[in-house]
Every structure is written in structure tokens, then in C-alpha cells.
């Protein structure tokens, strides 16, 4: 099954579930804030990813930037190194995303996020009832950026 509501990359405004697509925390970038939100240290993050890689095919990846697919980004972001390795391994994008989804769940768990602030912000910004903002946010897998795009498109249709 493909990860239908996969978030945007953290560096593009995605929520903490997108940590599954991040590199090791070796430079200052938005990963720092996502790790804080997830309540895990950079070292714990590295250990979780390495442990997951050791038990799945995401641990493979000689030829990628960091030597393992656990550190690679979404297929929607062009990367010839990742794609070459996926072809060599005969791993489909569907299998890759399924494993990334599992890794995301290990990183941040399944707990529901508190979306009250996001719902209010969406309702105010797009002049819609909070119930509609809540429904759109839920349909977008709690990815605020995607919910904003959906509401923007709905406004254009009016």
C-alpha cells in the first residue's frame, strides 16, 4: 500500500512524520525543530534510523549520499543516486514509500497531533468554518501545507 498522506519534506514545511525523509542532522536546518517536536534527540534519531535499516531493505544503499536508503528523500524529489540504487535493488517506489511510512511510525509513533491551532489558522486564513478546516486537515493527513493548498484551490473554484 502506498503512503497516501505522506508529508512534504521537513525542509519544505512538512510535519514531523517527514523525518523519515531527512538526512543525518549534520548541519543547521529545519530537522532540529522537527526533532524537538517529535521529542527525540539527534542521537536517538540516528539510532532509530540505523536500527530500522538493519532490519529492512532501507539499510541498503551503497552509492547514496549517506550509504543507506534510510537517509534518502521522497521519490517526488529528483535524486539520481537514490533512483539508481532503487533500480539496482529492484525496489519499487511503492515498496520504498511503504518502508518509509513504517520508519516514520517508529520515529514519531501513531499519536494524534493537537491540531487546534492549525484548524483555527486555516479557518481564519481561508474564511471557512472550523469544521471544514478540520475535515480538510484530516483528509490531508494533518499536513498543514497540503491542507492550505486544498483550501486555496477550493477558493479558486468559487
TrEMBL record:
Tell me where on the tree of life, at the top rank, the source sits.
Answer: Archaea
InterPro entries the record matches:
Methan_mark_9, UBA-like_sf
- In Swiss-Prot or TrEMBL terms, this protein is called Methanogenesis marker 9 domain-containing protein
Query: Which organism was this protein described from?
Result: Methanobacterium subterraneum
Amino acid at each position: 500500500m502506498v503512503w497516501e498522506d505522506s508529508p512534504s519534506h521537513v525542509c519544505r514545511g512538512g510535519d514531523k512524520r517527514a523525518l523519515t525523509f531527512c538526512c543525518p542532522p549534520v548541519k543547521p536546518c529545519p530537522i532540529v525543530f522537527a526533532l524537538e517536536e517529535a521529542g527525540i534527540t539527534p542521537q536517538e534519531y540516528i539510532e532509530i534510523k540505523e536500527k530500522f535499516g538493519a532490519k529492512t531493505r532501507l539499510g541498503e544503499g551503497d552509492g547514496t549520499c549517506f550509504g543507506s536508503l534510510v537517509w534518502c528523500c521522497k521519490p517526488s524529489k529528483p535524486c539520481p543516486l537514490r533512483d539508481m540504487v532503487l533500480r539496482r535493488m529492484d525496489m519499487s517506489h511503492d515498496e520504498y514509500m511503504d518502508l518509509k511510512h513504517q520508519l516514520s511510525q517508529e520515529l514519531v509513533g501513531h499519536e494524534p497531533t493537537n491540531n487546534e491551532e492549525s484548524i483555527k489558522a486555516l479557518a481564519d486564513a481561508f474564511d471557512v468554518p472550523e469544521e471544514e478546516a478540520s475535515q480538510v486537515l484530516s483528509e490531508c493527513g494533518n499536513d498543514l501545507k497540503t491542507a492550505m493548498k486544498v483550501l486555496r484551490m477550493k477558493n479558486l473554484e468559487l
